[in-house]
Amino acid sequence: MNVKDLFYPLLAALCYSTNPVMVKLGLRSSNEPLLGAAIGMTASTVVYLVYFLGAGRTRELFTIPQWVGWYFAASGLCSTLGVFSFFASLQYIPAAVVAPLTAAAPLVTLILSHFLLKEMERITRADIVGTILIVLGVVLLVG
Amino acid sequence: MFYGECLALTAALFWGSIPILVRKGLPHSNASVAVVLGLLASVPLLAAVFFLHPRWVAQAVTPQAALWFSACGITGPCLGRLFNYIGVARLGAARATPLINVSPLFTTVLALVFLREQITLKVALGILSLVAGIAVLTGQKRA
């Protein structure tokens, strides 16, 4: 694997790593987690739309096959519904139990990749071992 | 009975499905379009949260908290998601997703360095497992 390929996933991880701190700071003055998540997503939608439209990329939205648009829309819905399920779970069990369970997401991706992305990706033994080690590491850190 | 656990696992299922949907569509488009359509698809859900919440948002959330939540939205669903999708496009869903999920490693290291938190055996094992996972995933030749 090229070292340059690591840049984007790790940059994404770095962006996500700042979220718990900012959420904690926000919740300190207003204990409204669901509204907080909705405000965050609204802000991201506005900022990204301004960038996308400002960069004159509107045409790109209409040049993709319709089914691709539905897949991308479904990915966004999955993200938001995931956040709602996450907050709903916190009503029943403590965060220390929720966090390790949600850390299983890469395992879900690994299993679904094997069945649904057969023609695009070949899952290796190293992929399985690496994913399990990372999930285990996250469980130890957040559990 | 187990409502909380089921909801947390539902969140993992939703989040784990995202890279699959994005990976299927990306060869026909790009990460930026995926982010825009994903964010737009969630607008009705966000509107529902704002309208169904028992208190009006301006009464429930202080401006300072709104600022933190917005910042979180910009680094998470905005920038984080863009880099996440570029990572999926370059490395594939199964390989990029665990790498993106190492964000607790950054959070922990930041807490150790800046907040001078004590390193426990559990945290040390977690870091070790994450680093080993990254090494295993990235050490292999491209499939």
Strand content of chain A: under 5%
Biggest beta sheet summary of chain A: none
Helical segment tally of chain B? 8
| Distinct helical segment count of chain A | 8
- Decide which structural class fits the backbone of chain B: mainly alpha
What does this entry look like structurally?
The complex is a heterodimer of chains A (143) and B (143). Chain A is an all-alpha fold and 143 residues long. Chain A has 2 domains: 92 residues, no CATH class; 50 residues. Chain A has 8 helices and no strands. In chain A, helix 6 runs antiparallel to helix 8. The radius of gyration of chain A is 18 Å and the shape is globular. The mean pLDDT of chain A is 90. Chain B has 2 domains: 91 residues, no CATH class; 42 residues, no CATH class. The termini of chain B are far apart. Chain B is 81% helix and 0% strand. Chain B is an all-alpha fold and 143 residues long. The longest helix of chain B has 29 residues. The mean pLDDT of chain B is 90. Chain B contains 8 helices and no strands. Chains A and B meet through helix 1, helix 2, helix 3, helix 5 and helix 6 of A and helix 1, helix 2, helix 3, helix 5 and helix 6 of B.
